[in-house]
Amino acid sequence: MKSILTPLGPKADKDTVRRHNLSLVLRAVRDEGERGEATRAGVAARVGLTRAAVSSLVEQLMDSGFLTESGKTFSGQAGRPGTALKVARTGPAGLGVEINIDYVSVCVVDLAGTGRVRQTEHLDNRGTPAGEALARAARIAARTLESAYEQELRPVGAALALPGLVSGGSVRQAPNLGWNEVPAQRLFAEALAALRPGHPVLPVASENEANLAALAELWFGGLGDVRSFLYLTGEIGVGGALVLGGELLRGAHGFAGEIGHVVVDPEGPECRCGSRGCLEQYAGQAALLRAAGIEGIGGASGVLELERRADAGDPRAVAAVGEAGRMLGRVLSGAVNLIDPDAVVLGGIYRGLMPWLAPPADAELTGRVVSGLWSPGGGRLRASSVAGDAARGAAALVVQDVLDDPVAYAEPSGG
Amino acid sequence: MKSILTPLGPKADKDTVRRHNLSLVLRAVRDEGERGEATRAGVAARVGLTRAAVSSLVEQLMDSGFLTESGKTFSGQAGRPGTALKVARTGPAGLGVEINIDYVSVCVVDLAGTGRVRQTEHLDNRGTPAGEALARAARIAARTLESAYEQELRPVGAALALPGLVSGGSVRQAPNLGWNEVPAQRLFAEALAALRPGHPVLPVASENEANLAALAELWFGGLGDVRSFLYLTGEIGVGGALVLGGELLRGAHGFAGEIGHVVVDPEGPECRCGSRGCLEQYAGQAALLRAAGIEGIGGASGVLELERRADAGDPRAVAAVGEAGRMLGRVLSGAVNLIDPDAVVLGGIYRGLMPWLAPPADAELTGRVVSGLWSPGGGRLRASSVAGDAARGAAALVVQDVLDDPVAYAEPSGG
Fold it and tell me: Matching Gene3D superfamilies, A to Z (chains A, B) (predicted)?
């Protein structure tokens, strides 16, 4: 994966092969550690390097704070046979900042991918100028960073998850936020730097929030062998992302995955994007709550109320969710005909609504997927796990950068 | 690219590095040859091998009949400084066989990618049992092979281009042919073998015709820097293919690209695929001719008549093509929102209808592509070149296999 951040400083180590091998070993320890204990011998077998080479690389990674020994069988001798290795729970980490319509969620993920600190605030970013909304997110991020430092975590970069078309560090268009051509990355970085005088400036990346939620689902969710999937996240907007063969499809301009603006009815209601009858107008949060007759309760509370009513058998709630499911299924059938993915994953507000949403969506897919491969209830339409979380995906994207080239992110005074 | 054919025999040469380098050098000569003259020194610089290594590899490729010297500066001395190299115009070649609804087209492509023999027969494959249609195609192929041998070309494999869902050598479903679970690859290979007693059996591959037309467009068309595009081909059905970053997206089951069965109107006319209101029912050949009031003239003649009438300003013809363009644009806007390709290429019957088809399609795209990046007439919607030809793509796919591992396709007695 291409680096998402500008490296912190000039790359001192010119031995690119060694840098590559450091990355291989660090990843191997992380992956082996997920399934049991990682040892130098196990890592050597996995990456195809000699035991001696691996020992030297492990040494450097321990000196720089990327690896630790579990200590269980630590003997203090050179060679340390059988000692279990782990990625450090302290040191380099990633900061993820999701700025959505009605909340900001910030989290810190360590090298193992574990979420360690989380701070979420419910607020309304629609009524706020973009610069102010980003400054507010920076304040939440600064507080989250304080908590991370207390846990001896050292975030080396931040990634912003934003609900709109993101490219070149800017939000080109985020209809539900009312943002147009907002240089979000720069504004956020400046606001955060101003809050932390004396600290090194944190490099900042940015990406569409559905893309990052899909990556989080891929990395941390329960997808098993699934490597190609379409990801939909129901929020105030309807976001989407495409993962093909384990890689995010960003598209020629970075705008792939905008399934919320696939047309359902060409003469349908006007959409904030400028078109008419987009899926968002039938299966977005506002449309759902309106159709269910839930007025005056916004955001998460409104969705919980909708779940409660549907669960109690309220006919209007059940019909509203069912109709949204039909429209979702109709649009998804087109996407499946086009892409032929292993699975379609529904996240965001759709997770809790699956009992009423999935059957009509499945029926549309069964009737309209031309390959006849769609079997209702066959597991290709599934709810996202709780892992499908854009803030965690953003933080993990930063960690990927560290794993790709640990030397670039070693402590300035490390060694 | 993974080999599409079963290699002809056991791989005698165990030196995989040398085999890989033979492939590199053969491709380098082909690519350099397209832009001027390929020399040993030029090839060495391109592939990063020593001049001596390249000379040895060139020697082997010439002995096996893959390369020739142009002779212009041929001195007869060892080392041959400055001698121009070319891929052979004789020897290994690919056979492509497109079996479509109302025609069969067979072609032979040489190592340089040039179409050398072509035989097309207009007939109706709908009224014929699948086995008989395949046997008829094999007879056309056998005659084409005779012509190839006369030109000292030696097709080493065949690829079938088929209008339907193709996987594992079988047509799973081809609604417009009325085929279901037809083992096309085996039936064709057997029929061809029966026609050529005493000849080695030709290995046969198979693939969806739109996929192969898209590859032909990528390899031989005028796409320039475009590496990601959506390809639509209007025929009796509407086929589609997705090329992302220069690679065909086959999908999890091999069924990606079925844009003809994306729903336009959920309550629309029944489609042969079992769904309702598919794009094919609005922009397929039959629907177009019917809407234009052209009855009783089928196939290519009907389409030419439609072009003639539209060109003469016949209101019904112009309206029919315009409406098809609107429906195409509507479905394409969804696909562009999802995929964000560099371009959308329209082939088949759409090529000649572009003057009346493109403006309404462009208008739909402009209004509905959420990124606002779609500019009408901006060149992202374009007609395919004549290169977008499934039979040539099929033959070229075989040639790709040869270029990937020439040793596997050397003359049995070569050396």
Answer: 3.30.420.40, Winged helix-like DNA-binding domain superfamily/Winged helix DNA-binding domain
The predicted complex's ipTM stands at: 0.84
Number of other residues whose CB lies within 10 A of the CB of residue A195: 15
Residue A398's contacts (CB-CB under 8 Å, 6 or more residues apart) are A4, A5, A93, A94, A95, A96, A109, A155, A156, A157, A158, A159, A205
The DSSP code for A134 is H
Residue A44 is assigned to a structural domain of this protein: yes
**CB contact B85 to A (< 8 Å):** no
A254: chain B residues, CB-CB within 8 Å: 340
CB-CB neighbors (< 8 A) of B338 in chain A: 240, 242, 256-259, 262, 335, 338-339
Task: For B286-319, write each residue's pLDDT tens digit.
Answer: 999 999 999 888 777 899 999 999 999 999 999 9
Confidence label for A281 from pLDDT (cuts 50, 70 and 90): very high
Question: What's the CATH number where B347 sits?
Answer: 3.30.420.40
Q: Which two tokens stand for residue B108?
A: 């032979």
Is B217 within a domain?
A: no
Q: Rounded to a whole number, what is the distance in Å from the CA of A319 to chain B's nearest CA?
A: 19
Give, for A69, the enclosing helix (H) or strand (E).
strand A67-69
One domain, residues B375 and B231: yes
| Closest Cα in chain B to A277 | B368
- Domain span including residue A295: 226-382
Euclidean distance between CA atoms A180 and A406, whole angstroms: 36
From chain A, the residues in CB contact with B262 under 8 A are 333-334, 337-338
Q: Give yes or no for residue B356 having a pLDDT over 70.
A: yes
Could you identify the residue written with the tokens 């195609």? B137
Does A257 contact B338 at a Cβ distance shorter than 8 Å?
Answer: yes
Dist. CA B305–CA B301, nearest whole Å: 6
Closest CA to B272 of B163, B154, B401, B121: B163
DSSP letter string, A157-213:
EEEEEESSEEETTEEEEETTTTEEEE-HHHHHHHHHHHHSTTSPPPPEEEEEHHHHH
Polymer length in residues for chain A: 415
Residues 6+ apart with CB under 8 A from A153: A90, A91, A93, A108, A110, A116, A117
* CB distance A132 to A191 below 8 Å: no
Residues of chain A found within 8 Å of residue B257, distances taken between Cβ atoms? 338, 340
B235 in the same domain as B375: yes
The two tokens of residue A17 are 């092969």
